[in-house]
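We emphasize that the prediction below concerns an isolated chain of 296 residues; any contacts that depend on oligomerization or on bound cofactors are therefore not represented. The input was used exactly as deposited, without trimming of termini.
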Amino acid sequence: METSAEELPEYQEAQPEPPSDSDRKKKQLIAIVVVIVILAVLALLLILLQPAPDPGTEQEHILTISNVEVTNSTKANVTFGEPTNNPHPVKLKVIISTLTESGVYIFPSNMDGADLARISGDNMGFMVFRDFADNEKIDPGDMILMTGLEKGTLHNISIRWEPNDHLIDYQEFLTLPGPPYGQFALVDPTSNTTVNITFDSFSKDVEPMDMYIILEKDGIKGTYVFPSNDDWTNLSIISGDNLGNMIYRDVANNSIVNSGDLLLLSNLSPSSDFTITLVWEPTQVAIDVRSFSTPA
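Result of the prediction step, given as a token string:
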């Protein structure tokens, strides 16, 4: 058999060309971009799927009580300090407590002059919110005015974030003791310019310096204080008009006002009507008031 003079070449499969460095870099860059996009999407989903924060957690220390001013035996003024933000009063609640009693109060509105409402516990007094900026928020200097507190008692006031009952701030304060029970026993004009006033007994031991005297005639007043508790002390006038002289007689000489001790008034105006008031100095409360007249 004859063979062709020219044989066909053997078939060979074409081999792909190896990728160039430029192609490899493009693929690597695309992969990196895809990973970054996937990570960004995952981070965004995590943020969106996070539960809402506790409404009170970040507010736990939103403001402070800067001062509690005790004004007498049953009253105190609570002043707010600088807040980190300005919360609405209705987001707060107030707890007033003593060693034996406690009451919980809320702000029924954000308005200036709102009376706080007791929602549980004991009746600890009467409270009013003062919003001096009148913006229905707590600002520095805004106050809670408290009345009807227990006399001579250690109190604790705490401010809490109402949504979760977190404590914001608290302070302790001591109300002043109430005035003692006592009176003038006798007012005796001994001449047209002199009067002897006798003390009755008191419900507790009282030093003269714990009290002061207001003497009044025809609408003119003078205020006199005891500079010491000693017998024969000359009272000093600290304000108003000098309507006469006063000497304290401590008959028992014990620096305590007892039944039978005296006030000796002299240099009074003859034929005049006077009013004398005995005042408890710590709380500015009158203990007794008497009227008398000097003869002509």
